[in-house]
Amino acid sequence: MSTAVTSGSWPSVTADASTFSGLGTDHVRWGNVADDAKSGYVFSGGSVPVKLDGTEFTLGTFTHRNFPVPALPQPQFDVDLSVKVVFEDGTESAFSFRFHHNETPNDGPAPEDLVDLPSFVSPEEVTVDGRKYKVVISGFKQNGQIVRQFVSAEGGANSADVVALFAPAGEPDVVLTDVRFRGTAKNQADEYVEIMNRGSEPADISGWQLGADDAGQDFVFPAGTVIQPGQRIRVYTNEVHPEWGGHSYGINRPIWNNKGDNALLQNTAGKTVSEFPYGDKVKVAAP
């Protein structure tokens, strides 16, 4: 475990920079109105504990000040973010990300503005103990969920933590991260297993198998299943959720034992890539 201090600034935009203010600071603004009524982005860093084993941490807090402004000449544009990370040993590194902004019409059927990241992986690397790492953004922690798109309601300042991790450069890293083994829907159709790519490269898991210790609980991922860096997908028992990859066993009965079981993820060679014991299968470390 190490402690790092993060800070950020917004150095540039892909729109006409003359219509923006605050470039080069932690608060960039836009809109042909008074400064205190402009829309804009704020990035707030802080002191955070970090690990290099794929553990997620809060890179900083992203706030979108979303106020009604006159129509922009270019309603969609990119805003670049530079984040400086200073480790407790004095090591400094700067990482850059691009935020894609969609300034939607305020009086339309969906007035919320949308913020996406075209890439969730920093192009820059940092070398620690001879190994190169990149920063991968998992997403925005909004309403208790880590999501890949920030939905910003009109008329206020909307914030979310930017959740990130340090990933070895040039490698995927696929792991099981959660098993929801007690569903609430009929026949526990909303049970799911969550899988994440903690690496800095996409992971093609076509033909990989998800299962448990018991026979008959195997799900094979279809051709073309790719998990992007920092992305989470889920395999539901009998529901389809496109926002989580759209995978489902399609079985009209519960799959995951409520007392305990061991979820296994195996590659096409039959090698166990990751396992997730839960319930009475969790091993308790000796005191």
Ordered list of secondary-structure elements with their pairings:
Blueprint: E1 2-13, E2 20-21, E3 27-30, E4 39-44, E5 47-50, E6 57-66, E7 76-87, E8 92-102, E9 113-116, E10 126-128, E11 131-142, E12 145-147, E13 149-152, E14 156-168, E15 174-180, E16 192-197, E17 203-204, E18 209-211, E19 219-220, E20 226-227, E21 232-236, E22 247-248, E23 260-266, E24 272-279
Parallel strand pairs: 21-22
Antiparallel strand pairs: 1-5, 1-7, 2-3, 3-4, 4-6, 6-14, 7-8, 8-9, 9-13, 10-11, 11-12, 11-14, 15-16, 16-21, 17-20, 18-19, 18-23, 23-24
Q: Approximately how much helix is present in the residues?
A: under 10%
- Based on Cα principal axes, name the global outline: globular
Provide a count of the helices.
0
Query: Could you give the order of the helices and strands?
Result: EEEEEEEEEEEEEEEEEEEEEEEE
Query: How many strands, what sense, and barrel or not for the largest sheet?
Result: 8 strands, antiparallel
The pLDDT mean sits at 93
Number of strands: 24
How many whole angstroms does the radius of gyration measure? 21 Å
How many individual domains?
Answer: 2
Structural overview:
With 287 residues, this protein is mostly beta strands. It folds into two domains: 2-168, no CATH class; 174-279, Lamin Tail domain (Immunoglobulin-like), CATH 2.60.40. It has no helices and 24 strands. Strands 2, 3, 4, 6, 10, 11, 12 and 14 form an eight-stranded antiparallel beta sheet that branches. It has a six-stranded antiparallel beta sheet with strand order 5-1-7-8-9-13, with no helix packed on it. It is globular and about 65 Å long.
